[in-house]
Amino acid sequence: MSGESQAASAVVEPEVTTEQQTRRLPPYNVVILNDEVHTFDYVIELLIKIFRHTKPKAEELTLRIHNSGRAIVLTTHKELAELKRDQVIAYGPDPRMQESKGPLRCYVEPAPG
């Protein structure tokens, strides 16, 4: 009897492992757009707090947003990308600027894969 149960479990386990290894979620980019109502300090702070970027990386991305009009700040699976977008929106206006009335513009797009 012990021989039968070993054979049965040996057949099932590799199939499950193989299936789990080959399943990949398509990548999505989180993109932040430039505007004139959020300070560099606000954007750097947001990138560090929400995306856990280092300060040098956050500064680099902030300059890219400023100079290019946009930057991809994270590439991940769709659910996490949407969560991060929602966190950016929930971060709200920049308290350093009186004319800042809302959050940074941020969206999710499919990443080339």
- How many strands, what sense, and barrel or not for the largest sheet? 3 strands, antiparallel
Give the averaged pLDDT, no decimals.
87
Low-confidence stretches: none
Discrete helix count? 4
Q: Strand order, biggest sheet?
A: 2-1-3
Query: What is the number of E strands?
Result: 3
- Sketch the topology as an H/E string, one letter per element: HEHHEHE
Q: Look at the structure and give the CATH class.
A: Alpha Beta
Structural classification: alpha+beta
CATH superfamily: Ribosomal protein L7/L12, C-terminal domain/Adaptor protein ClpS
Strand residue content: 15-25%
The best one-word shape is globular
Radius of gyration over C-alpha positions, nearest whole angstrom: 21 Å
In CATH, the architecture is 2-Layer Sandwich
State the domain count. 1
Distance from N terminus to C terminus (CA atoms, Å) equals 49 Å
